[in-house]
Amino acid sequence: MRRMGKIAVIATVAALALTGCGSDDKKENGGSDSAKGPKVGLAYDVGGRGDQSFNDSAYKGMEKAEKELGATIEEAKAAPGENDDIRAERLRTLADAGFNPIIAIGFIYSPAAATVAAEYPNVKFAVIDGYSSTIPKAPLDNLSDLGFAEEQGSYLVGVAAALKTKDKHVGFVGGTHGDLIKKFEAGFTAGVKSVDRTIKVDVQYLTEDPNDGATGFENPSGGKDAATAMFDAGADVVYHAAGKSGLGVFDAVQAAGKGHWAIGVDSDQYLTVDAAQQPFILTSMLKRVDTAVFDFVKAVKDNTAKPGFTVYDLAADGVGYSTSGGFVDDIAEQLNAAAEKIKSGAVVVPTDPAKVK
Amino acid sequence: MNVLRRVLLGLAAPVLALIVAGLFTTLLLLLTGDDVGGFWDTMLSWPKNRNLVNILNSASVLYLSGVAAAIGFRMNLFNIGVEGQYKVAMFAAAVFAGQAWLPGKLNVIAAVLVAMIAGAIWAGIAGILRTTRGVSEVISTIMLNAIAGPLVGYFLAKWGQSTGNSTQTKPIPEESWVGGITIFSDSVTKLYGLSLLAVVVGVLFWLVLNRTRFGFDLRATGSSESAAIASGVNTKRMIVISMLLSGAVAGLVGLPVLFGNSHNYGASFQAGLGFAGIAVALLGRNNPVGIAFGALIFAFLTEQGNLLNIMAGISPDIVAVTQGVIVIAVVIAYEVVRRARTRIEQAAVADALAAEKGAAA
Amino acid sequence: MTSAVAAGETAIELTGIGKRFPGVIANHDIDITIQAGTIHALVGENGAGKSTLMKILYGVQKPDDGTIKVNGAEVSFATPSDAIAHGLGMVFQHFMLADNLTVLENVVLGAESLHGIGDDARAEITRISEVYGFGLDPDELVESLGVGERQRVEILKVLFRGARIIILDEPTAVLVPHEVDALFENLRRLRDQGHTLIFISHKLDEVLAIADHITVIRRGTTVASVLPSETTSRGLAELMVGSELPSPSTEESTVTETVLLAVRDLEVTDEDGRQELAEISFDIHAGEIVGIAGVEGNGQTELVEAIIGMRHLSRGTVTMSGTDITHWTTRQRRESGIGYIPEDRHRHGLLLDSPLWENRILGHQSRPPSVVGPWLNLRGARADAERIIAEYDVRTPGVGTNARALSGGNQQKFIVGREMSGDPKILVASHPTRGVDVGAQAQIWSHIKAARKDGLAVLLISADLDELIGLSDSIRVLLRGRLVGRFDPQSVTPQELGSAMTGAGDDR
After folding, report:
1. What is the pLDDT of residue A8?
2. Which of B75, B251, C97, C289 shows a CA-CA span of 20 to 30 A to C243?
3. DSSP states of C6-68
4. What is the torsion angle, in degrees rounded to the nearest 10, for the CA atoms of residue C484, residue C486, residue C487 and residue C493?
């Protein structure tokens, strides 16, 4: 029986490990068959809709497409612990079921999309933040990558942070230490320094592993610890680019109290946090995934979809900042000026933190 | 105890567990108001050929992971660290093979060895800690799992290359890829070349376990450590050797995908195979053939589960719940069956003796 | 609490008790009548069904058939609590005491509601102790008590709970002779105060000395009820086994001049540096059996494990046929011809959930017929397991049966057969016939004697003085980790051995 006990413990551990990552949100079978618009397949990574950030923003674009273009939507969610074959199979299943276009949310889908796009030449594929079009040897005309100039939006919130800090000390909390999040850091730091070179910028990534999304983006307690440390060290504005972990940053700023600010990311997070936290959300860096998704669906419908990379930048209204709460209204002039300089090309925002002057 | 009865008793537990898990999942779906009919239609539909290939691919990888766990389990050594071991090993192999120091297939063979050594070292740490410091291998392997992630991430950030937003190791040159094996001509997916490692490992595992002195010592230690010591088994040495072997097999887990599909270690690294392997080993009763069935069942469930939310609008997470319930149910079922078996045997002994007495009288 | 029952009335009446386990009939048609105020002995060989019967009486198990009457009223016990409520108490062979608690604490544990845990309880304990002459101090720590005193604490526990009928399961198994005398003194006093005692034993001399009535159990049923004055131990033994009693008899000496095992100045310390064995030196010659007597826990286990190589020596040497094997591993020693019959066959001798043929390999993993090089020889192991089953009369349907399914005696015969395989030079036999029925015991003895004749050197550790005297060529006594006496089995008496074993004799 003693041995039995030990096995039972192990079995429980194994079972928990298998089920632990499960979440319970479920979806309604979307769309009606009567619509004549495009049938759009959306493939999410783990987590999926409900992150109040990136994935929800994509869904917002789809809702718009549903309304304005008569599109039908099918969402497919990932389970934890997948490889490229499993992702590819999800895209194939969508393609077999007649969905076109198919939009994959997250760069993780790039290899899978590249594989499946070659198998289904009549179906259009797009990968948000992706690099899929670099993978096939010969370019595919049904494969698009929709990217964003996150550094430009981050630059603007960096300017806002620099103008709002009283102690000349701000912070940045990143999810995983990979190239994507480095762009946020680089833009933010450049924006801060453009206002006042003497302002100190604390930088903290939740994990050094560029591929450890769980620790980077699904870790509110880690986000809270990082932000709390920054506030304790004297920072009074903290910007996060850490997905769900950012919710911890908001807890930290609320705990730090009046005179401290947090800056959200991807969508207008002022609108989704508790009322108690709203007074602390200075602004959010907007990454208009919804715009990209909507534009792509529209382009497919109009048969004008462009293969290869499309970058949504400030000029294309692909990135920006939010004004909900009105906390940045008093500095709107400076922010607009900075935005104009970027649009005109007078300022080129770096994408690598090492290149911030 | 005849062979047929043995086989039936052996099958009783997993079948019982599958039924219980199926009932539990149905109940759960009813409670959440999901489409039960759609769930079973999707799960029990016969997979397309390309899905069959995917199932074989996943199963071979799960099998390797299951055997890695089973090697330890057979001697009551609970290596929970397969997860970290294959991560470290796959990374080491990817870095090594990416350097292309050796040409073509030699590079593959050397990388397989590198992976086995890396996995063995990572597991060996737990073995040494257990024998020299009495640290429970359960604790130390869990800790080593936690260390493996950041360690690999750190080196990946340092040495990796970036493509778009993804960071990965330098890709393996094409001449060292291990091409897929076409099973169905109409399937776009192919069997990973290195899936055959699973067959090799399975045969070796069976042979070593059942036909060698070493395997006997291992099993003896597992069923009674005190009796094994008295019989002259050096259990400390056995612990270290089994951990090394377990880690070496764990090192193979990532290789079919590495050489057959991803060609680098990066964002598409598949996490969770180590834990799934523990479940598969428990399901297969740490038996070489049983683990194969367990791996196939898990691979089948995962592949079918992938279709669930497109076909039936049910979150694929439900499949993870089903798998978890299977594992717990199977452990309970095995104990129930084991007790039943002991009773049957004791009755058989009594019957035989009674018959003997009767004949003598 | 039940009131005292006058002598002459019936305290317990068991009628037609039967109990079946899957494949085993443990008890059937048991009829026993026990008079109040008497000592009633229940004798039978191991496995005769005594333990099951007592478990039924104490409410641990429910009988399948039959009735139990206590003080004339029919009862049905679902749990031991029911039995206790009817004035029954049980003193187990293995004490259930917490060493780091005092006598008082051990006694009140679980019975706090009777007399509290303070002065009332202390007064009650002191009263019981005085009435029956236990001589126990309520505030003494149990770890500082000797075996006999601990047993009295166990008896005190059941008296404290108001027992009038006390079951004692092999109470003398752990005692040395003079402690047995003291126990009997206590028991007689209990009886004289009106208590009823059920005394379970298979030591016939003791039974004859203490019991007022004797019931004999054989093969699960009651076969006779006798008065001690009307029988002898030989007569009882015949009732028990249903045939002639095999007695260990001394035969011609086969001791040779060749020293096979030589132990010199051996010392073993535990993890805390406490000495467990010291200054142990002895030789065993080819054809010689050296018996080690001693109360359990005086270093026997350590001595055996030191010789087998399972325990590290802090000093001293072990030599086999002139070769120093002090630093050899267990496997090396076993390969070179040391057979080992372990004290605890379930822990050290068998893989219970493996078939017999695999158990044949255990301990012989590196020797034929079980292996060929690094490979197992399944056919060889099976064939040799068949041989052992035939030669040693192991009752089993076949070699594929799991060891667990066999009875204790058959497991032990299989182990003996296995350890006699491969021509061992030295046999370390620890309690080789413990828990074995009389028939199997005789077989095991004759196998050991035959091997001795062929030049085997045997180290025999046993708690059974008859076995030691009957088999050994010379007897050593182990007391507190040291060899304290050497006796010639031809002339030694149990009393002499007993006093050496307790240190009560002269200071040798």
Report:
1. 55
2. C289
3. -TTSEEEEEEEEEEEETTEEEEEEEEEEEETTSEEEEE--TTSSHHHHHHHHTTSS--SEEEE
4. 0
Q: Say how many C-beta atoms besides its own lie within 10 A of residue C367's C-beta.
A: 14
The residue ranges of every structural domain in chain B are 59-300
Domain of residue A279 covers 150-286+326-355
What is the C-alpha separation between B156 and B166, in angstroms, rounded?
Answer: 11
Considering only CB atoms, which chain C residues are within 8 Å of B214? 374
- C-alpha distances in angstroms, C52 versus C21, C56, C68, C93, C169? 10, 6, 14, 14, 11
pLDDT of residue A31: 41
Identify whether A103 is part of a domain: yes
Tell me B189's DSSP state. -
DSSP string, A268-325: -GGGTS-TTTGGGEEEEEEE-HHHHHHHHHHHHHTT----EEEEE-TTTTSEEE--TT
Residue closest to B329 by CA, chosen among A11, A13, A1: A11
Which residues is C264 bridged to in the sheet?
Answer: C317
Outline which parts of chain C fall under CATH 3.40.50.300: 10-241, 259-502
Residue C387, CA atoms < 13 Å, CB-side half-sphere: 13
Whether pTM exceeds 0.90: no
Asked if C397 contacts B352 with a C-beta cutoff of 8 angstroms, the reply is: yes
| Predicted pLDDT at C371 | 87
List chain B residues with CB under 8 Å of A109. Answer: none
Radius of gyration of chain A (CA): 21
- Banded pLDDT at A211 (limits 50, 70, 90): confident
> Is A120 inside any structural domain?
yes
| CATH architecture, domain C259-502 | 3-Layer(aba) Sandwich (3.40)
Q: Under an 8 Å CB criterion, which residues of B touch C?
A: 1, 210-217, 219-220, 223-224, 226-227, 229-234, 338, 342-343, 345-353, 356
Give how far B347 is from chain C: nearest CA, Å: 4
ipTM of predicted complex: 0.85
What residues of B are in contact with residue C23 (Cβ under 8 Å)?
343, 346-351
Instruction: Nearest chain A residue to B50 by CA: give it.
Output: A89
Which two tokens mark A184?
């946020």
